[in-house]
Specification:
The structure is a homodimer of 220-residue chains.
Chain A lengths: L1 H5 L4 H22 L7 H8 L3 H7 L3 H23 L6 H18 L1 H10 L10 H14 L8 H21 L5 H15 L4 H7 L7 H10 L1
Helix pairs in contact in A: 2-3, 2-5, 2-7, 6-7, 6-8, 6-9, 6-10, 7-9, 8-9, 9-10, 10-11
Chain lengths: 220, 220
């Protein structure tokens, strides 16, 4: 994406964008390692930019870390949008998004750890999975597919489960991540009122080829 | 508790225990505020102990923070044990523990924030709610009360929901915490295979008087 927009930017703007991106990547790596108490100097060294450059882009370390997480969530949200474009049923959009999110923890372990280390505040975020899941649960309820009395409570369980699934998958490297993600999605669909047989069937439908997209995503 | 044990300790041991407890309390307050990057000196000042005392008790700040969270989890686990002593049905023990845990976020906001700031690693902890919920889900499945194929996946959803419920309750101070906790418990019981009417009935049974116990707990 930076490449496409870059043609319109002058040399200074391009350099600024590169510096900001390098700082964000470095911050994501430190957050993924749980090293949020790292000094700013060390972040700028890891990003290979001057200490002075830091304050051209961010007011504080917290400001940078916040931007790093938001950027990761936006990237995840854009991926989910792309991978559910062909669907109309909001129940299936929810299911596919949840199944795919469950598969991303191992495919993008660094991004996953960035998000897990951000912790529970993420379950209330207005970026990434949460606003999309809210929209899908509401639409599925309006369409009579789900029987959910309180969207925020349903969302609370789903968001908590999405994060704790990631923790489980990192802690149990031998566990089949696809099967675990599909089983939890099926359980959530039943909890939201979908008949058991349909919940099971929806969670066994084929998924878009994540390998190809994940490759494209990594290279961006 | 420190008072009861103290009678058997000599003066130096008592002072050591006081110092350790003061450091743990200070650490819990900093974690609750999300200030994990605070210098050790500031923690010792908040605890009103000398900087040298710190290293008599803990190897590092991370060591102290870890102990602070474990201590909070043990306290919560002991409370749940006490409040479910009169029950035999593991499904109801799970339900009551989850309903009570949901009610603790507002009653003990500082403890709750310590736990929420600890983040997702908590869903895999062997202290506090998680090992008790694992035991109850397994027992309820063996007794034919739950129909759970994979205890760890069921536990993953329950632990994630317990934490994200806390986040929701802090973010939405006007929301009825008891009603939200009971609704999510009921949803989880249905997910675990309890018939809908029974799930609802179990979650409407009276609870032990948390006010009295919470008072005792705070004073300890």
């Amino acid at each position: 994406m930076a490449k496409e927009a870059g043609a319109a930017l002058n040399r200074l703007d391009r350099r600024k964008a590169r510096t900001r991106a390098a700082l964000i990547r470095a911050a994501q790596a430190f957050i993924a390692d749980g090293q949020t108490s790292v000094p700013i100097l060390e972040i700028t060294q890891a990003a290979d930019v001057g200490m002075g450059s830091f304050y051209n882009h961010f007011d504080s370390k917290e400001d940078l870390f916040h931007a790093a997480v938001e950027e990761a969530l936006d990237r995840h949200g854009a991926l989910l949008d792309e991978l559910t474009l062909d669907l109309d049923d909001p129940a299936e959009i929810f299911a596919r998004s949840f199944r795919l999110t469950g598969r991303l923890h191992r495919r993008h372990p660094e991004l996953s750890k960035v998000l897990l280390n951000r912790g529970m505040a993420l379950t209330r975020s207005e970026r990434g999975l949460v606003p999309r899941a809210r929209r899908d649960i509401q639409a599925a309820t309006q369409a009579g597919r789900f029987t959910v009395a309180d969207t925020e409570l349903a969302l609370t369980v789903a968001a908590g489960a999405a994060l704790s699934l990631g923790q489980l998958l990192h802690d149990q490297p031998d566990r089949d991540d696809a099967r675990a993600a599909d089983q939890i999605t099926e359980d959530l669909l039943r909890m939201f009122g979908l008949p058991a047989d349909e919940a099971r069937e929806v969670c066994r439908r084929p998924l878009p080829n994540l390998d190809e997209l994940a490759q494209g995503d990594s290279a961006a």
